[in-house]
Amino acid sequence: MLSRILLENLGGFTTLSWPHHSNINLIAGGNDTGKTYLLKMLYSIAKSVEDFTKREKSDKPAWRDVLAEKLFWVYQPEGNKLGELVRKGESRLKVEARLSDENYTFSFSQDTARKIAECTEPAAKQPGLNALFIPPKEVLTALEAIAATRDQLQIFGFDDTYYDLIKALRLPASQEEIPQNIKEVLDSLKTFLAGEIQRQDGQFIFKRNGEKYWMSQTAEGFKKLGIFTALIRNRTLRKGTILFIDEPESNLHPSAILSLADMLFALSQAQIQLYVSTHSYFVLKRFEILAKKHQARLQFCSLKKSERGITAEFSDLSEGMPDNEIIDASIKLYEQDVEVDLEA
Question: How far is the C-alpha of 131 from the C-alpha of 39, rounded, in Å?
């Protein structure tokens, strides 16, 4: 599991030091405060170590090479240069991370193309490491288009967060028994959807009461939630997974957002680590309630933009909701409603 990250001169960040992580880690902030940028960096580190671990000995890849390719296809930088990730006006980017009690560091300059010169080597391998990223847009409808763009054309468009996800979704359902605590999440999803996303003849369908519906006939929110059922069934989403979710609230009704938060919290109790970026008051408030109810540590990273770059404040939601832009906007809307009523 990830337990520490230090970023210097990444995108809009001058310095971000996040020393304490928990099983659930929420990231919130206004638009253009680097939420997805941060989430993608955490994913790139974890996924590159996973891919590096799985490589055959005959390939003899250095982690720096696997990492460079992952960063390139996750961020798809302008001009095909990794150096574009370096904060404007600065000469170098530096990243330090701690993953499953091992330290990983790397650094590169604005002139870097696709090779990272300064990097932890030999890097420690992590058998059993599993990283998944669920982006804001659903992928089941566009699955074949994503595959064609990357498998055949090798062009920018759908980044590796999408491409890695469709590769995971294409894996067949496993005959291996699903642990009870994760099976309960699967059962909750099936009850909420009143059906299940399944794979048939290479295509995904939504099955309900014996009826089959193609993805084009299925609601956007159901397709997004259905991804979880497919990943649990093929055992890609399992104990030890680090799961990254960018804006889980997209395309979901507030009641569905609350149900999804409950399911994600249950997954965290099954030793799955989560990183969730959000704009939603419902997501934040539901997780705060769950953290207090279960007395569970829940790290909250609040990002803000200033003249000095993007800054971060950290807190534990089990101790209450700190001031943040999402809560401020909700309070302002409430105050405006009261003012209108008083004027009437």
Answer: 12
- For residue 208, the tally of other CB atoms under 10 A from its CB is 15
Count of C-beta atoms within a 10 Å radius of residue 103 = 12
Residues with Cβ < 8 Å from 221, sequence gap 6 or more? 251, 252, 253, 256
Using the 3D structure, point to which of 192, 211, 237 is the last residue of a domain. Answer: 237
What distance lies between CA 113 and its chain's CA centroid?
26
339: part of which helix (H) or strand (E)?
helix 325-343
Distance CA 242, CA 271 (A): 9
Residue 333 lies in a domain: yes
Is there a single domain that holds both residue 42 and residue 106?
yes
Does residue 13 contact residue 309 with C-beta atoms inside 8 Å? Answer: yes
pTM comes to 0.93
CA distance 223 to 141: 8
pLDDT, block means (10 residues), the chain with 344 residues: 95 94 94 93 97 80 94 94 94 95 95 92 90 91 85 81 94 90 92 85 84 87 88 93 95 90 94 95 94 94 89 92 78 75 72
Residue among 114, 274, 263, 106 nearest 181 (CA): 263
